[in-house]
């Protein structure tokens, strides 16, 4: 990738077309918003972010690594077409990815050029909309995170609001009503060119296989603009919850409301379902939505114990163990160093998120379980050489012989004294396997 400073890529349209709003702070949504989006400073920031995010190619096959060179050659013409209203976005490439529960999630991958333009739009619109969003909205907002959402939920629960309403909106990103969304956007955006450009992106369609499909509703996951548009639409839900005086936490389309009694929780679930259907034309998934004790539900991969401490949900733990089993499956036939490299990437990311759990002993148990899986993996690889490998690693002759000739299977033997001696925790530490549990003083 070209590592030259971004300033060397002159993302301007010539003249003053893209830089006419030097003093834009007083009227950030007045006519001229498109020029602010197309300003050199904003475009350079958008380009850096798209390159940082990487991602797959869209329908045109262009990779992110080719974007900078493409813009050097074609930006003048592209910018002019955006300004005069003749630009037409390409359809998004729709792909399916498996969901943890066995279903499928549809992602729409715009071309890298469209990702770049959408990123530029999002950056400016975010400065307009974000200050007006609820304090209890945490998803896809600068300076906010899922961890903050969990801590806020815990705060409400400790105040005595131990009944939760778990709202699951059915296929939210696929069912966003374009007319309602555009109506919301017009409340703060008066530049019709920007509104038209956003509407073009919403209706640009998708390619499934080799077939084009129109998109009369929805905003595709995978688009840089979609998370902000989701917050714009669902801000109506936030404002309704605030008007009613409810305690709630929302992260994108995942919303939990906290109340003091079962009766209140069931009543709120019913009334919010009606509100979403009538006001936002969104359906609540009745199978996944429920009112219950907070320790019976999960939120963003976490749950709460009866002592109101944060813990990892059972579903998240099952997914974790299933993934570790897949990485350490015997039939993969990889050497231990390759396995540990894969584990290191996964475990570091997993720990960064689930390290929020206030049950530290669980991480110690998981560390032990992972190392046992690796001992089992190595024992299977050694096969008939098991005795020799045990002796080479310091196991006594009798213990090595009894272990090698044992009728027990590999999983049982992975917990044996011989393998603990031959493959101690320090052995895996030296290979670079991270530990989930780190003792703090």
Structure explained in plain terms:
Strands 2-1-4-5 form a 4-stranded mixed beta sheet, with no helix packed on it. The protein has a 4-stranded antiparallel beta sheet with strand order 6-7-3-8, with helices on both faces. The chain has helices at 33-37, 40-53, 67-84, 112-129, 146-158, 172-175, 178-186, 192-202, 226-244, 262-280, 314-327, 336-354, 360-382, 386-392, 397-404, 410-413, 417-422, 425-430, and strands at residues 92-98, 104-109, 163-168, 206-208, 211-213, 247-251, 254-259, 290-293, 302-304, 310-312. Helix 2 (40-53) packs across helix 4. The protein is 49% helix and 10% strand. The chain has 441 residues and is of the alpha+beta class. Mean pLDDT is 91; it is low at 1-8 and 14-30. The protein is globular, with a radius of gyration of 27 Å. The protein has 18 helices and 10 strands. The two termini are 44 Å apart. The longest helix has 23 residues, at 360-382.
List the helices and strands and how they pair.
Layout: H1 33-37, H2 40-53, H3 67-84, E1 92-98, E2 104-109, H4 112-129, H5 146-158, E3 163-168, H6 172-175, H7 178-186, H8 192-202, E4 206-208, E5 211-213, H9 226-244, E6 247-251, E7 254-259, H10 262-280, E8 290-293, E9 302-304, E10 310-312, H11 314-327, H12 336-354, H13 360-382, H14 386-392, H15 397-404, H16 410-413, H17 417-422, H18 425-430
Parallel strand pairs: 1-4
Antiparallel strand pairs: 1-2, 3-7, 3-8, 4-5, 6-7, 9-10
Helix pairs in contact: 2-4, 14-15
């Amino acid at each position: 990738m070209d590592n030259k400073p971004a300033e060397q890529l002159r993302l301007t349209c010539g003249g003053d077309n893209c830089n006419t709003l030097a003093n834009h702070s007083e009227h950030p949504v007045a006519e001229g918003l498109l020029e602010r989006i197309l300003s050199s400073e904003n475009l350079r920031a958008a380009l850096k972010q798209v390159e940082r995010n990487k991602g797959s190619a869209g329908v045109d096959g262009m990779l992110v690594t080719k974007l900078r060179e493409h813009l050097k050659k074609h930006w003048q013409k592209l910018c002019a077409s955006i300004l005069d209203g003749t630009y037409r976005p390409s359809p998004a490439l729709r792909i399916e990815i498996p969901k943890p529960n066995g279903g499928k999630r549809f992602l729409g991958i715009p071309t890298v050029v469209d990702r770049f333009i959408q990123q530029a739009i999002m950056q400016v619109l975010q400065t307009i909309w974000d200050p007006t969003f609820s304090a209890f909205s945490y998803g896809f907002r600068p300076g906010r995170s899922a961890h903050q959402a969990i801590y806020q939920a815990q705060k409400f629960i400790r105040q005595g609001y131990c009944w939760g309403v778990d709202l699951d909106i059915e296929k939210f990103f696929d069912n966003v009503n374009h007319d309602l969304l555009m109506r919301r956007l017009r409340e703060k955006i008066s530049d019709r060119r920007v509104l038209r450009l956003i509407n073009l992106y919403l209706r640009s369609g998708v390619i499934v296989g080799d077939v084009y499909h129109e998109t009369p509703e929805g905003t595709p996951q995978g688009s840089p603009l979609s998370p902000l548009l989701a917050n714009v639409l669902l801000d109506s839900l936030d404002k309704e919850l605030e008007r009613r005086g409810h305690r709630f936490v929302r992260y994108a389309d995942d919303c939990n409301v906290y109340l003091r009694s079962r009766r209140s929780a069931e009543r709120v679930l019913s009334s919010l379902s009606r509100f979403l259907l009538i006001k936002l034309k969104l359906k609540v998934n009745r199978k996944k939505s429920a009112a219950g004790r907070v320790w019976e539900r999960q939120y963003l991969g976490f749950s709460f114990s009866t002592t109101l401490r944060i813990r990892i949900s059972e579903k998240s733990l099952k997914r974790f163990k299933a993934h570790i089993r897949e990485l350490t499956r015997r039939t993969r036939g990889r050497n231990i160093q390759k396995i540990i490299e894969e584990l290191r990437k996964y475990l570091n990311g997993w720990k960064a998120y689930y390290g929020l759990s206030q049950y530290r002993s669980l991480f110690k148990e998981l560390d032990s379980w992972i190392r046992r899986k690796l001992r089992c993996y190595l024992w299977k690889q050694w096969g008939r050489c098991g005795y020799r490998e045990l002796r080479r690693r310091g196991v006594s002759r009798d213990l090595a012989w009894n272990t090698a000739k044992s009728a027990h299977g590999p999983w049982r033997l992975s917990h044996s004294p011989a393998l603990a001696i031959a493959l101690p925790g320090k052995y895996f530490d030296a290979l670079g396997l991270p530990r989930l549990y780190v003792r703090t003083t």
